[in-house]
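re: ur msg from earlier - yeah i can do the fe (ii) ion complex, just paste it... oh wait u already did. ok heres what im feeding in:
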Amino acid sequence: MKRSISFPVLCVLCICAASAAFAQPAPKPSDVTLQNLETAFNGESNAHARYLAFAEKADQEGYFQIASLFRATARAEEIHARNHEVEIKRLGGTAQAKIEKPDAKSTKENLEAAIKGETYERDVMYPDFYKQARAVGDAGAVQTFNYARSAETEHAALFTNALGNMATMRVKGATYYVCTVCGYTTTNMDFAKCHTCFSPKDKYVAVS
Ligand code: FE2
Ligand code: FE2
Ligand code: FE2
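and the outut:
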């Protein structure tokens, strides 16, 4: 006996077939970690380029100490990018950055933009990425996100201090110190080991 399928049943079957055809598999936890590392790599690479442009502008305006601060933080962001790149390669990815042309304005505006960027990384981006990496037990990603977040916290504080004391920051030859392992940036070398990565002091480089 020939059986026919009713119209409503046919509709349900068509919808199910269409859903199955277009459904995307849920991303694997390691894919999300890799995507976060790539996002962070792109952000750090752009911050490096942006801070070098901001340093040039600060030198032009005679804020020599702020120029040194931007050069030191640029170095730190480069270290973060390098650390992220190691983890990207470990997960089978390729570290690629799309460098946007830095939009350098006045030094005051550049400091404000830098504070905004560092605050976002400190309070939103890195805590989220850290949490995800921790949840999936990726120790390498946890470490690189933790190193970066700690340095961004210090960068936000250094930029905020500079913004509040611009008039006093025309000193030439100011020195900042950057940890080449984790990117922590400071003016005070009165410690035995880096408080973020516990590397010995000799891992720090001076940037003027
Ligand atoms: Fe950074
Ligand atoms: Fe930073
Ligand atoms: Fe360090």
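cool cool. The radius of gyration is 23 Å. ping me if u need the other ligands too
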